[in-house]
Amino acid sequence: MTRVFSGVKPTGHLTLGNYLGAMRRWVVEDQHRSDALFCVVDLHALTVDHDPARVRRLSRQAASLLLAAGLDPALCTVFVQSHVDEHARLSYVLECVATDGEMRRMIQYKEKAARERGGSVRLSLLTYPVLMAADILAYGTDEVPVGHDQTQHVELARDLAVRFNQRYGHTFVVPRATHPVVAARVMNLQEPESKMGKSDDTGPGIVYVLDEPDVVRKKVVRAVTDSGREVVYDREVRPGLANLLEILAACAGGEPAELAGAYDSYGALKKDVAEAVVEALRPVRKRHRELCADPGYVEGVLRDGAERARAMARPTVDAAYRAIGLLPPVNAAR
Ligand code: TYM
């Protein structure tokens, strides 16, 4: 059976981008057709300035949102990255296969480092893609369902798997990224040239999964559209409009270009987009409220998930340790 792995980083409240670009497909498709693991990748949240209490809070919230969105622990494994030591264990070994030049070429590193304007960034921000490769390779993953922004990171995981296998013998499955047909890159409603990212603090352009319906409506109605009157789908020339059409297609079905033909004003389109988003998020918010009242359930899911994940990752990570030349621990019984 195909092995699927993906994750979400608790650096902020989850957004419509996370939901449409990744989570919804995990729920609707991946957990039903594959042997899938979904992870709250909390170690990754420590790569930028962070408040420990907030990371803990956001990790719990992300886990319950994954369940609220419809991940079913009877069908897939849901867990928290730091509960499974194999990720960090494998990451070090992969650092011995990756090069610093490769890390410095990563777009997300360059963007985040540039924002610091010459100030220093955490070393873990540079090595982050190696940890992500470890997340993926530890499980013999075939497919990694992600939004477009993660493509380069998954490519690196592929490169490291191939290089390791060539140097030290076949150990890792070579994974590939998969993307949704629409909404693989949901853009910020106020800055349609930038991705809708949970850690960028520009509230009005970001729809959060837990936003109240009226907040969603306000944000959508105020979305920046482009000059011009006609409703057409053109990502290059009319990025604001294209973003709204893609969100509508993702939430309500249809093709963005065809949907465009059904509207003769921006106002009518925005109204429908707002309602489609509100309806898509409604059941998730409702189930999240129920789960908040039952923290014991979420904890139980994460405990079982970590146990299952550990058992799956251990043999591959042990094999990588042997292959690269590390001495097996002496068996206590001998
Ligand atoms: P993160 O937490 O930024 O995002 C989680 C998932 O949501 C997708 N996504 C989007 N899709 C469409 N439009 C957007 N605006 C948008 N914003 C986010 C992301 O592509 C991702 O699929 N490095 C990863 C987390 C990670 C991971 C992994 C993923 C760590 N280890 C192993 C897969 C496999 C990240 O920061 O995702």
Keywords:
Tyrosyl-Transfer RNA Synthetase; 3-stranded parallel beta sheet; two-stranded parallel ribbon; binds tryptophanyl-5'AMP; mainly alpha; 334 residues; single chain; Rossmann fold
Description:
By secondary structure, the chain is mainly alpha-helical. The protein has 2 domains: 3-179 and 295-333, HUPs (Rossmann fold, 3-Layer(aba) Sandwich), CATH 3.40.50.620; 213-290, Tyrosyl-Transfer RNA Synthetase (Orthogonal Bundle). The chain has helices at 16-33, 52-69, 86-95, 100-104, 107-115, 123-137, 151-168, 213-221, 239-252, 256-260, 266-292, 295-324; strands spanning 3-8, 35-40, 77-80, 143-145, 176-178. The chain has a 3-stranded parallel beta sheet. α6 crosses α7. It is globular and about 75 Å long. The structure holds tryptophanyl-5'AMP.
- Helices, by number, come to 12
CATH class of the largest domain: Alpha Beta
* Cα radius of gyration in angstroms: 21 Å
**What's the architecture of the largest domain, going by CATH?**
3-Layer(aba) Sandwich
Give the terminus-to-terminus CA distance. Answer: 38 Å
Question: What is the global morphology?
Answer: globular
* Total domains: 2
Helical fraction: 40-55%
Which compounds are bound in this model? tryptophanyl-5'AMP
Report the major sheet: 3 strands, parallel
Order of strands in the sheet with most strands: 1-2-3
Q: Overall mean pLDDT score?
A: 95
The CATH homologous superfamily of the largest domain is called HUPs
What percentage of the residues does DSSP assign to strands (E)?
A: 5-15%
Strand elements, count: 5
Structural class comes to mainly alpha
Low-confidence stretches: none
For this structure, the CATH topology of the largest domain is Rossmann fold
- List the secondary-structure elements in sequence, H or E: EHEHEHHHHEHEHHHHH
